[in-house]
Every structure is written in C-alpha cells, then in structure tokens.
Amino acid sequence: IGKTDILMIPVGGNFTIDAAAADTVIAALQPAVVIPMHFCNDRCPEFPVAGISEFTKGKSNTTIMAASEVEYSGESLPDSPQIIILSPAR
Fold first, then answer.
1. pTM for the complete prediction?
2. Which tens digits make up the pLDDT trace of 7-35?
3. Beta bridge partners of 12
4. In CA terms, which of 14, 26, 38, 68 is 20 to 30 Å from 84?
C-alpha cells in the first residue's frame, strides 16, 4: 500500500474486522492518524457490533472529537500516531 497518512478502519466486528484485527492492520500500516468506524454508538444502539471502548482500551493516544468531521493537510499531521474518534453526524 505504501505510506499511509490517515486510515479509516472498521473496529466493531461482526460484519467487519474487530478491534484486535484492526490493531494488526494499524501496526502493519503505521498511519499518522487512525479514524475508527463501524462501531456501536448512540445513533444506532441496537447495531450488533462492539462499542468504541473495545478498540480504545489501553490506548492513550485517543482524542474524542465533538464534530463529525476533521481536516488534515500534510503539514498538520501529528508527529506521533493519533486515534481520532468522530461524533456521529446528526
């Protein structure tokens, strides 16, 4: 794949990969920013996938955003890997 700046990755399991498999992919690609997706949240509480805490457990490089979008440029990428959790759009 080559250099990965931003990786959007499913983490909820069931229909896609779970948190453990996502960690394996992240370790292989070493992106600057990880944006998890496809996890249970308050917009879809009955969706049969794991919540975000399964993925973030033990990770200190996590930021929960109050927004449903974020913008980066090559110059604004973090120096160390970051996990950005976006809020569901309303």
1. 0.92
2. 999 999 999 999 999 999 999 999 999 99
3. 18
4. 14
Tell me the two tokens of residue 22: 């996502």
Distance CA 21, CA 6 (A): 17
Do 72 and 31 touch, CB atoms closer than 8 A? no
**Distance separating alpha carbons of residues 66 and 63, to the nearest angstrom:** 10
Question: Following DSSP, what letter does each residue of the chain receive, concatenated?
Answer: ----SEEEEE-B-TTS-BHHHHHHHHHHH--SEEEEES-B-TTSTTSSS-BTHHHHTT-SSEEE-SSS-----GGGS-SS-EEEEPPPP-
Decide: 9 and 34 in contact? Cβ < 8 Å: yes
Measured between alpha carbons, how far is residue 8 from residues 36, 46 in Å? 6, 22
The rounded distance, in Å, linking the Cα atoms of 52 and 68 is: 15
Token pair, residue 62, equals 């996590």
